[in-house]
Design a protein that fits this description.
With 256 residues, the protein is of the alpha+beta class. The chain has six helices and twelve strands.
């Protein structure tokens, strides 16, 4: 099974790019973030035309997550992250596809930091970590993937000295990520490529893509039942070079 994650940065505005990528790479499952569309504006018909079933959790103008599965049934397990009934931001959706539990997330950015947006990011991270601990109790393979808005180490960011005060790289944010990993999750990209420079995001400014001045902020975390089945992983970096594309590249894993 090939599972991908892709922050599309607007599912309708980038729909031609999304459809082109799906046709080219044909992932069995694709997790999308930053739909920036309310539920009724999700482009289901265009995706169904390519053979994809979908569940989604939309929001007007901001956020939004979805899980697509090609010629497979999707059983929705959860819509929204538990722990705060007043949090209305659409950042998490969870489903089962072929007996694999898949959590798709769009973790808050947190900037400007310090401030209320960083506080929200850290509180969301705490809720997510608590939920992840419960998922580890499942006797099922589990993958948690999406845009974490965290560069875990200096290897994951171009010129890390420029990012020390950014909410994607602040010590407390990186500590929260490593606290999550320490529960027993495996960072799929780092398992296969422990020392390689790999980026998943390139800003639109200053020719970041052309200079390969990127960040690795889109991650796959695998539970102990799924980790031994990991066979391959990578980034479809070339998609970032397409016209009117997202500032993220799709990331993928293959599991046996």
């Amino acid at each position: 099974m090939k599972i991908a994650t892709y922050n599309v940065n607007g599912v309708n505005g980038r729909l031609p790019v999304l459809l082109r990528w799906l046709e080219e790479t044909k992932p069995d499952v694709a997790c999308l973030q930053e739909l920036k569309a309310p539920d009724e504006k999700f482009p289901l018909a265009a995706l169904q035309a390519l053979g994809y079933n979908a569940i989604w959790h939309g929001q007007k103008s901001w956020n939004g997550v979805a899980i697509l599965a090609k010629d497979r049934e999707i059983k929705e397990l959860r819509r929204g992250l538990p722990g705060d009934d007043e949090d209305l931001q659409s950042r998490y959706i969870e489903a089962m596809v072929d007996d694999v539990v898949i959590g798709c997330l769009y973790l808050p950015n947190g900037n400007p930091a310090p401030g209320p947006k960083l506080d929200y990011k850290l509180s969301w991270f705490e809720r997510f970590t608590a939920h992840a601990a419960k998922l580890l109790e499942y006797n099922l393979p589990v993958v948690l993937c999406g845009d974490y808005n965290v560069m875990p180490t200096e290897l994951d960011v171009y010129k890390p000295e420029r990012w020390v005060d950014d909410a994607l790289f602040r010590p407390e944010v990186r500590a929260a990520f490593h606290n999550l990993i320490d529960q027993g999750w495996t960072d799929a990209i780092r398992k296969l490529y422990p020392k390689d420079v790999i980026y998943t995001f390139w800003d639109y400014f200053r020719n970041a893509y052309g200079r390969d001045a990127g960040l690795r902020i889109d991650h796959f975390l695998l539970n102990p039942l799924l980790e031994p089945r990991l066979k391959a992983a990578g980034v479809d970096k070339h998609v970032r070079g397409w016209e009117k594309t997202s500032d993220h590249g799709p990331v993928w894993i293959e599991i046996a």
